[in-house]
Design goal:
- There is one protein chain.
- By secondary structure, the protein is α+β, with helices and mostly antiparallel strands.
- The chain has 2 domains: about 45-125, no CATH class; about 130-200, no CATH class.
- It has helices at about 130-150, 155-175, 180-200, and strands at about 45-55, 60-70, 75-80, 85-90, 110-115, 120-125.
- The strands form 2 sheets. A 4-stranded antiparallel sheet has the order 1-2-3-4, with no helix packed on it. The protein has a two-stranded antiparallel sheet with strand order 5-6.
- A hairpin with a 2-residue loop joins β5 and β6 (about 120-125).
- α2 runs antiparallel to α3.
Length: about 200
């Protein structure tokens, strides 16, 4: 066994495969039997991508990105005795919102599984509805083109990039309740200062 340190409770039944002796210059290697989950694992799911697995008692639990036959991913739950052979539940995980109402994301991928004390939490990424991205992109592109008609490119492009970072940071604080560290607040102040200096 390699000298690998895991900062976690003991997982004596974790599957392990030694690094091939002839593998040079690569810190990570793939299990020789990959992929361990075949195509069409359950009805309606073409393939399994990104997964998150944790010990659960004497077996394993996992959350999986199940790509539908139409290309849209959802999150599925699976169970395994050895973390290699999986029984994936045929139904999507039935999420609920803050009010306890049924909530099914329209596009869910990159799931993560986190255990806090005795509760397991599922975290995933999602895409906003198309218009929520498309409309701001349209107006930002229009603004960029109009600005280039009146201002030099050496002012427009840096201002555009800096303003985008500033808006994204503020949106994270206001809408997603992100907490910026002190150094990140300093970065926001420097962004504002750079905008002012560019436009003096």
């Amino acid at each position: 066994m390699s000298k690998v340190k895991m900062i976690s409770p003991a997982v004596p039944n974790i599957p392990w495969q030694e690094k091939p002796a002839d593998l040079k210059g690569a810190p990570i290697w793939r299990y020789t039997e990959n992929p361990i989950i075949d195509r069409n694992p359950v009805e309606g799911v073409a393939r399994i991508f990104n997964s998150a697995v944790m010990p659960y008692g004497d077996r394993f639990v996992g959350v999986f990105r199940g790509e539908q036959v139409n290309g849209v991913p959802y999150i599925y739950l699976g169970w395994s005795e050895d973390a290699i052979h999986w029984d994936i539940e045929p139904e999507k995980i039935p999420f609920v919102d803050e009010q306890g109402e049924p909530f099914m994301p329209v596009y869910a991928y990159d799931p993560r599984l986190v255990k806090v004390e005795d509760t397991y939490y599922i975290i995933w990424c999602t895409d906003f509805f198309g218009a929520a991205i498309g409309i701001p992109n349209f107006f930002s592109s229009k603004f960029l083109l109009l600005s280039l008609a009146d201002l030099p490119a050496v002012v427009v492009f840096p201002s555009f990039s800096i303003a985008t970072m500033l808006v994204a940071s503020l949106a994270g604080v206001l809408f997603f309740k992100e907490r910026l560290e002190k150094r990140q607040w300093f970065a926001v102040l420097f962004i504002i200062l750079a905008l002012l200096l560019l436009n003096i």
